[in-house]
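job 3f2a | input accepted
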Amino acid sequence: LAPKVEVYSIDEAFLDLTGLRDLEKFGHECRETIDQWVGMPVCVGIGPTKTLAKVANYGAKKYPATNGVVDVTNQERRRKLMAIMPVREVWGVGSRINKKLNSLGITTALQLSELDTKLIKRKFSSVLERTLMELKGYPCIGLKEQPTTKKQIVVSRTFSRKITDLNSMNEAISDYTSRACEKLRKEDQYCKMVSVFMRTNYFRKQDKQYHGSMSYKLHSPTNDTRDILRATKMLSEEVFRKNINFIKAGVMLSDFYDEGVYQGDLFRAMSSRSGSKELMLTVDKINSSGIGKITFAAQGIKKTWSMKRFLQSPRYLTNWEEIPIVK
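job 3f2a | predicted structure (327 res):
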């Protein structure tokens, strides 16, 4: 629908409409297309900045007469909407900032937009100053077509039963490590820091309580599951304690690098497995094909500790076998 799109969240996106003339008509076309393709009602807010687009979206949601589309590129229309919009509804204004603004007599988005930027920066922060500039119509937050690279990846689960033996814990940690490595490769990143943590159930006061964690710095960045599995197994054996009822564990990968940008140690040769990249790509391709799964032996087979999923919601939109049948 638009040449530039930023997927902001699971249910929200920003579109660059530069060059389009009838913006409100385009907004209605978006609503109709999404309703036809997905069957999901949406609201469209149009403005010269991201914050003003969110202001318009508030109007589209709040007032049914708009038919789900509001365009505030017109300054007079923008002021009328902001005059009846509570300041707490402005993008970036949380409950604490709202209370402080209210104490200064600022209760609407319009009143906020008329304040001096220097005053806001002095009394609040540069973040709210940027919001104020956006409300005035000056773009300060650019469109990000590519999502920012993650700074860390965490995979953790609550067990279906208490774990008291090291073998089961190693299986669980290895399973979480494999999932984390898949996510790491999807980001096209290599990690150098690996962490493992495990804990007991805080609510069982009769149990001996324990929360342990440990990190390990790899010699060189990698996204090969085999290398990271070796590290997490070593860590889990260090963190694990006997006679403890563990209820949750997890793996965290951090300190990410792009391929080929890491400067190695002068006194240590860069170590990498032959064919590592090709092998991991093949494993990921097979695992995402739907034909079957390739797992490492360390992940276990029966996985009796695995999280219970008896009440899992059906995957109506992603699994052919679970599409509801109407008779």
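job 3f2a | The chain has a mean pLDDT of 87.
job 3f2a | closed
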